[in-house]
Amino acid sequence: MTIEEIQRRKEELRVVISVPDILHKYGVEVKRGRCKGICHEGKDFNAKVTDDYLWCYVCNSSMDIFSITQHFENCDFWTAFELLGGTERPSFTTTVKAQKARKERELKESQELKHRMELRRIQNYITAYRNIIAEEKPLSELWCYCQNRLQYQIYLLDLHNEKR
Ligand SMILES: [Zn+2]
Fold first, then answer.
1. Confidence (pLDDT) at 164
2. pLDDT of 116-138, one tens digit each?
3. Which DSSP state fits 63?
4. How would you class 132 by CB atoms within 10 Å of its CB: exposed for 0-12, middle for 13-18, buried for 19 or more?
5. How far is the CA of 28 from the centre of ligand 1 (A)?
6. What's the gap in Å between 22 CA and the centre of ligand 1?
7. Ligand 1 mean position to 158 CA, how many Å?
8. How far is CA 75 from CA 37, 39, 66, 72, 159, in A?
9. Class of domain 3-90
């Protein structure tokens, strides 16, 4: 398998097998999105569990379905990959599901980037108007203009933050 094939297969497996699935398989209890810190043999529920990863608040370590399998099987990545079905031919549905998940993630990432850029732009305007207002003579034409624009940008900022 090429690196690209392995990468693709990893993504496919992540879509069909969730972290809670794997934890369940090894008898690890998940309660309200948390489980015991398996990474440090912990007794308390101080690891956060999502579909994609387990995050331990104690060790600051994050584990996915592969590293959890490695942990319990005491094996290397490749063995875990094989155990999870990585070398089997994926079914058509699996491939479609994985592609869909990837597209959704990419779309979300590009939206977040757009949001951050827009936020930065508004903040830059606000700073610029505030600077001019501070230096201009109050009630001068430019001062009034900047006050107006400033209110508008603050309004945009509120609007933008509400959208989140
Ligand atoms: Zn831990």
1. 61
2. 999 999 999 999 999 999 999 99
3. E
4. middle
5. 14
6. 17
7. 39
8. 19, 15, 10, 8, 51
9. alpha beta
